[in-house]
């Protein structure tokens, strides 16, 4: 059996889907159920006269944490998450060494677009609601949710970028790459000097990209995909969200600080340093190195845009951040 055939048999492709369908038909007691692949490890299931979303999880622990999170969020009145299939009440669904999760299928309206001010506001409102709701969960399983050591993650990301710097200079002029590297180095150095962040902890989502917010046909926005669920002060999600929307605000510090959920950070040096760290640049170029030629060709225009097309706006933005940091330090 070739490697390609083996991968199809074990992890995906038509053969795996056929076997999964047979298993789900048996598990549901419904021979008329059907499934259709969406992407690797994800399917749409038609059963009981409705559609369901099926996902393969990398570990039982990861699934169970998400299952308990969603259950308790809904019980606590936070209805911006999608419930699991009642079948999960009977126990974990295991198939060929993997855990299978089944949740309700959400029929969606228009996509969330961070270029739209009302969409940004609604996504942020849902995210902050999630943070507040998660703080009210007092169950013992919360202790099993991993800590998000964000500074360590950022250091590793920059170290990997630094390792590939000489290779990346074949694609982008050294001046730009070294400038981004210097911003990241300085931000991490100053964050280290501040010491551990003392903000109130909650559960954080970890990936606040626009596609993880789904708008149902009733207009309600749902937060999905908790694979990166961890515990941390909310600032980690807020920094990531701010960095996601800043390109749509022309890298205006005044505009991002005018967002209601962000105003509380106006005297917080760690927040401004977090905005200075060029997380998107390091993340996307590291992935460029990791992926194959097809992905590189597809993502190249986007990489050029964020690295070069926004450079002067970001330079001005970093200068504004330095001014704010001087203001904060002066008043300490």
What is this entry, summarized?
This protein is of the alpha+beta class and 332 residues long. Helices cover 52% and strands 13% of the residues.
Structural account:
The chain is of the alpha+beta class. The protein has 2 domains: 3-104, Phosphorylase Kinase, domain 1, CATH 3.30.200; 117-330, Aminoglycoside 3'-phosphotransferase, Chain: A, domain 2 (Alpha-Beta Complex). It has 13 helices and 9 strands. It has helices at 3-11, 13-28, 60-75, 117-135, 150-163, 165-168, 174-194, 235-245, 253-257, 269-276, 279-290, 293-309, 311-330; strands spanning 34-39, 42-47, 50-57, 94-95, 98-104, 201-204, 213-215, 221-223, 230-233. The strands form 3 sheets. It has a 5-stranded antiparallel β-sheet. Strands 6-9 form a two-stranded antiparallel sheet. It has a two-stranded antiparallel sheet with strand order 7-8. β4 (94-95) and β5 form a beta hairpin. The longest helix has 21 residues, at 174-194. It starts with a helix and ends with a helix.
How does the SSE layout of this entry go?
Blueprint: H1 3-11, H2 13-28, E1 34-39, E2 42-47, E3 50-57, H3 60-75, E4 94-95, E5 98-104, H4 117-135, H5 150-163, H6 165-168, H7 174-194, E6 201-204, E7 213-215, E8 221-223, E9 230-233, H8 235-245, H9 253-257, H10 269-276, H11 279-290, H12 293-309, H13 311-330
Antiparallel strand pairs: 1-2, 2-3, 3-5, 4-5, 6-9, 7-8
Helix pairs in contact: 1-2, 5-7, 5-11, 7-10, 10-13, 11-12
CATH superfamily of the largest domain: Aminoglycoside phosphotransferase (APH), C-terminal lobe
Radius of gyration, taken over Cα atoms and rounded to an integer in Å: 22 Å
Average per-residue pLDDT, rounded, comes to 94
CATH class of the largest domain, named Alpha Beta
CATH topology of the largest domain: Aminoglycoside 3'-phosphotransferase, Chain: A, domain 2
Q: Please tally the helical runs, counting DSSP H or I stretches of 4 or more residues.
A: 13
Overall CATH architecture of the largest domain: Alpha-Beta Complex
